[in-house]
Amino acid sequence: MSDNSTAINKNAEKTLFAQRFRGYFPVVIDVETGGFNAQTDALLEIAATTLTLDEVSGQFNLDETIHFNVDPFEGANLEQSALEFTGIDPTNPLRGAVDEKKAITDIFKLVRKKMKAVGCQRAVIVAHNAAFDLGFLNAATERCLIKRSPFHPFVSFDTTTLSGLALGQTVLAKACIAANIDFNNNEAHSALYDTEKTAELFCYIVNKWQQLGGWPLIDADQTEESTAAQES
Predict the structure, then answer these.
(1) What is d(CA 43, CA 77) in angstroms, rounded to the nearest whole number?
(2) Helix 3-13 and helix 220-231, axial crossing angle in degrees, nearest 10
(3) How far apart are CA 23 and CA 127, in angstroms?
(4) CB 41 within 8 A of CB 82
(5) Phi, psi torsion values for 35, nearest 5 degrees
(6) pLDDT digits over 30-84, tens only?
(7) pLDDT tens for each residue of 92-102
(8) Greatest CA span in the chain, whole angstroms?
């Protein structure tokens, strides 16, 4: 059997989900924080939404969401302007907040379970202005001394960029409206709400691309074999 045939057979054994993003498992994340500095400012909320893929239609949909209110880590900075923007009161006992390690560990556990089920090798964060959320996720992972994150340390799918391309909008609320996704500004700036709306937006863009003929893509190995067959 040729090397090309072996590669094609191995690819055929993968789930469509695993093939779609080269083995990456996209997980939508949103954080609410006590400022802009991931190293010094508190992580106050985090939510993650996993996705499913209908292998018949090729369409992505929301799967499961996990959400935590988080206690500021010891010595964390809390900017008053950030608290006023999000409306979060870190001292409110009704928040039911957990420590960072509990939140991050439980999210990683869910991600690994879902990722394994579809045969993906690594998770990749999907977020609106993804560098911000990924920075806080990485900083919390390091503070909690978690040895191995399922997420790629720097690769991300940024829905700001994707919606700018697909919809001509970069603000989450405006991009959702352009995609005919309901968006309630009164619920915005909650990690749970923003995560699920970002997930809906990401699915809309990826699904629209599929509908326009952008998926499935021709595999490079298949292209080489097809060319070789035509030349023989």
Answers:
(1) 10
(2) 140
(3) 19
(4) yes
(5) 165, -165
(6) 999 999 999 999 999 999 999 999 989 999 999 999 999 999 999 999 999 999 9
(7) 999 999 999 99
(8) 73
Please, what is the Cα angle at 174 between 172 and 178, to 5 degrees? 115
Q: Are 208 and 13 in contact (CB under 8 A)?
A: no
DSSP one-letter code for 95: G
CA 204, CA 66: separation in Å to the nearest integer? 21
CA distance 36 to 90: 16
Ordered alpha helix ranges (H), 15-119: 16-20, 80-86, 100-117
Which residues, listed in sequence order, are joined to residue 68 by a DSSP beta bridge? 46
The active-site residue, picked from 67, 128, 152, 189, is: 189
Q: In this structure, what DSSP letter does residue 131 have? A: H
Residue 130 sits at the vertex; the CA angle it makes with 63 and 151, to the nearest 5 degrees, is: 60
Instruction: Using DSSP bridges, classify how beta strands 151-158 and 43-54 pair: parallel, antiparallel or unpaired.
Output: unpaired
N- to C-terminal Cα separation, the chain = 17
Distance of CA 52 to the CA centre of its chain: 12
DSSP state at residue 129: T
- For residues 43 and 48, what is the distance between their CA atoms, to the nearest angstrom? 14
Active site residue 189: yes
Is the dihedral angle over the CA atoms 71, 73, 79, 85 positive or is it negative? negative
Strand 59-69 relative to strand 122-127, pairing = unpaired
